[in-house]
Amino acid sequence: MKHDQAEGLRRKLNSIHTPKEAKTISIISGKGGVGKSNFALNFSLTLMSKQKKVLLFDLDVGMGNIDILMGVRANKTIIDMFERKLSVHQIIETGPNGLSYIAAGTGLTNFFKLSEGDKSHFYEQFKELLQMYDYILFDMGAGVTEDGLFFILASDECIVITTPEPTSLTDAYGMIKHVINNQKTMPVHIVMNRSSTYQEGLKSLTRFKEVVIKFLDVQITPLGIIPDDKAVTQAVIRQVPYVLYNEKSKAAKAIKELTFNYLSNSKEIERASPFYFVRKLKQFIER
Question: pTM, whole model, 2 decimals?
Fold first, then answer.
């Protein structure tokens, strides 16, 4: 009994000294035009509907379009944090349903060219974000850049967005290969977007998983299938997230089911140390 009480006390003390940190997820794709940013936005909103605190961080610098998809205009971007020495709290914008997001802006083409002072500023500010949210989602640029790869590798897991088109699947495979070659243990989820039918999506997803297992010798987790849906196109034109534009649409129902499955199967991540994401990112950059 005394041993159990002592063990319980140790756990409580450990929880005090190692506060819960946000799970970091990189949303990636092998090529553009597969609906990656739209997925990131609608997935974020659906997580919020499950009482999760979410920050959507647009890291497609120079090509970011999260604010356009929401029909809002960001007053500040990640660039302002460096150029104007702002705190991260000052650049967090608010989107539909109170979604917190950070816009990408233009001008920051290479993280490595930042001064050591700017990098340190970013690290310290990001530590605060890790304690403010349950999930931080990075909407990465399509394909692989040196800067982007380090953010992906520092994340807890990544979600790859692809479509059933052969070129999209080939590029998604190349993206996964690049990530796995650098970090074998990275958890990878797959979303098959814009499937003409559920059967087509399932067939493509199953075949894709088999190819990855055979040639890369890694397990990937199918996260879900999102159908090709006119409601998505209409929502994009009206600059409204499709889960808000038409919650009864096929795409909205699919992403809600996908999110439910994700949360049901999501595991708590054991941190090797506090602010693990920041520590990993620094290690990659300072190699």
Answer: 0.90
